[in-house]
Amino acid sequence: MATLIPPSDDLGLGEGYHSPQMDVKVRLNTNESPLPPPAEWVEDVAAAVGRIDHNRYPDRGYVALRAALAASHGVDAREVFVANGSNEVLQTLLLAYGGPTRAVGLFEPTYALHGHIARLTRTRVIVGERDADFGIPEIELDRVTGQSPALTFLCSPNNPTGRAEPRLVVERALAMAPGMVVVDEAYGQFAPWSALELFDGETPLLVVRTFSKTWSMAATRLGYLIAPAPVVAHLDQVVLPYHLDSLKQEAGRLALAHRGEMEDRVKLIVSERERVAAELAALAARVWPSDASFILFQPGGDARVVWQALVDQGVLVRDCSSWPRLSGCLRVTIGTPDENDAFLAALKETLA
Ligand SMILES: *Cc1c(COP(=O)(O)O)cnc(C)c1O
Residue 107 C-alpha to ligand 1 middle, in angstroms? Predict the structure, then answer.
């Protein structure tokens, strides 16, 4: 007789990935852009709905979007792979290069999905440890890459700690790693440098980008990878056929015409980040420097109590205090100037 069964026990599902979606006034917990996308882009997308052949499968090779992204980065169209959010890029990478006979390396604390998707694909995870400033010591890079990871994951700027990896660390990883080096640049536009500067189409360097954070398009689910052409060819074979729907392909292509507005948003968030960091430094026990659109800090005292007090005042930040290696830490996403003021005022009130 058929029966309900649990998922495979080698998945290591545990708690999984979840970020509470709460109904509060000021939401600074998931690093989304605080601003809606340009109104003209919304109009362009609405018009695109009318142009689509809704009874037909989408362009499987998403030729127009691929070409537009390639042009925007000055690379070849064969060096661009696009998916439903950068999380799906990561999943496709692990489906292609991970698995029970493979391992990946990463450096904790970092973006939880790297390890989570690795485990879902039965890929062994080699965990490196960051130092107290959340940098990657050379000795750890050596220890991790010495265990033959197929992929070595870096995250620059690193979520949830905020710092971009120095160029030297990416260069060292490329020199030491036996397989390929993946740099997750979900927050790349907020940082002073990008690993794309090292991309030449031959070096085994894979750079992941997303429309979710800088492009104000988290709802669209669109991310991509710049990688050597053979890697993109492998991923094209692994990903589900027709994975990018027609409207999404158009939405992404049309967004690239609004690059100027996107860059203005990045400038606003960077200047707000510097303001919030300076004010936080006077309030909190410890604040880590950030090259991203969020700031990690220790308020001092019981972070869980501080988090709840902020919620009670209508401000939601990310409570990282129960995560390994992040005890006492909260992470705040940079919002609009008003939202940042509300956060700072609520924190001042709480810590007074
Ligand atoms: C938010 C985030 C992502 C996920 O982006 P999507 O494109 O929305 O899937 C990937 N990597 C890091 C480091 C992130 O913080």
Answer: 17
Token couple for 8: 């495979």
Q: Specify the pTM.
A: 0.95
Evaluate whether 150 touches 104 at the Cβ level (below 8 Å): yes
The verdict on the CB of residue 290 being under 6 Å from ligand 1 is no
Ligand 1 proximity of 184 Cβ (cutoff 6 Å): yes
CA–centroid distance, 1 to ligand 1, in Å, is: 42
Q: Which of ligand 1's atoms lies nearest the C-alpha of 210?
A: 7
User: Edge-to-edge strands of the sheet including 286-287?
Assistant: 26-28, 315-319, 330-333, 294-298, 286-287
Please tell me the distance between residue 73's alpha carbon and the centre of ligand 1 in angstroms.
19
Return the residue whose CA atom lies nearest to atom 12 of ligand 1. Answer: 186
Instruction: Name, in order, each residue with C-beta under 8 angstroms of 39's C-beta and a sequence gap of 6 or more.
Output: none
| CB distance 157 to ligand 1 below 6 Å | no
Tokens of 318: 């990310």
pLDDT, one tens digit per residue, over 10-42 is 776 665 556 667 789 999 999 999 999 999 999
Kindly report the length of the chain.
Answer: 352
Per-residue pLDDT at 11? 79
Q: How far is the CA of 306 from the centre of ligand 1 (A)?
A: 26
Cross-strand bridge partners of residue 82 = 224
C-alpha 308/C-alpha 320 separation (Å) is: 13
In the numeric block, the tokens 């604390």 are attached to 109
pLDDT of residue 19: 64
At 23 the pLDDT is 85
Query: Distance between CA 289 and CA 270 in Å, rounded?
Result: 12
- 130-150 b/e (C-beta count within 10 Å ≥ 16 → b): beeebbbeeebbeebbeeebb
